[in-house]
Design brief:
- With 342 residues, the chain is an alpha/beta fold.
- The chain folds into two domains: 154 residues, Nucleotidyltransferase, domain 5 (2-Layer Sandwich), CATH 3.30.420; 173 residues, Nucleotidyltransferase, domain 5 (2-Layer Sandwich), CATH 3.30.420.
- It has twelve helices and 13 strands.
- The strands form three sheets. A five-stranded mixed sheet has the order 3-2-1-4-8.
- α6 runs antiparallel to α8 and α8 packs across α10.
- It is globular and about 55 Å long.
- The two termini are 25 Å apart.
Length: 342
Amino acid sequence: MIASYYHSLQLFAKTVIFVYNPITMKRYAIGIDLGGTKILIALVNKETGEVLASVKKKTKKDKGPKNIIRKMIEGIEELMEETSVEKSEISSIGIGAAGQVDRDNGILIGAPNLDCYDLPIKDLIFEYFQIPVYLGNDVEIAAMGEMKFGAGQGCDDFVCVFVGTGVGSAIVKNGQIVRGATGTAGEIGHIIVDLNGRPCACGAHGCLEAYASRSAIEKRIEGALRKGRTSVILEYLESGKSITSGMIRKSIEREDELVKSCVDEASEYLSGGIASIINFINPKLVVLGGGLVEAVDYFYERTIKKARAKSLPVPAQKIEFSKAKLGDFSGVIGAAFLEERK
């Protein structure tokens, strides 16, 4: 299986063999954040957490295992061409994927938003580059990045919640990622908020992700527009293009009723999910990130206010909230340190 993937990928990109020398001091790592709409690939200085260079690839319209692996290989090659860092200085390639992962074997078990199942990412990328490869969940790596260099610095008890194509979370307890019995702890996007609710990409119905993600907001807006509702967001939309977090922000700034109502609904559901986390896990801090949180202050402020109001009184008084401080780079920085969590 691995061989067939590898040979098909040779049609898309040139063969590159990097020599891995475990004796050489390696200050750098490649971090990859594999999300539902994009792949962000970065070269990270492991001593400082600095991103030296990055490459972004869109994934929304090019899903499926062969396309995903091809784009990662192309992105890594582009990154290596842009930087003067020697290949022998790169200690590892860390990948955080939006889905359920088998960390030990480096397999992406299931990523509905990417249409990838049982994909042996670790072996495929290692076979191509001959650099050690480590795999984790996308919000797990974001939490690791925030813990080392961002909003979670100095706090060993917090939860990260990231809102984008889906809704994901990661739990940090005593300075360690809580992975659970099967390695899938933190799937807040798939807690059930409506037993007979909307279909989710995971195959279930009524998941939080189907109500609170940017994708859910996009579907609600598009559905309303098809029914004849008007919105200033039409001024920003281009044919064949998706609704972005930036478009949502601009529409809210212009007090657009339709967009605001769809964002309010998503915030209502997300705040309920976060309140459930606060009541159940009782963390010191909740860190919110992802494209929607970064771009739309209204969504962030409303969500944390509602989450505090819906929580039990004692934890509600103590809980702290913060936006992710590393922005788009939370994931790639965390992924660069996955080898430390093997």
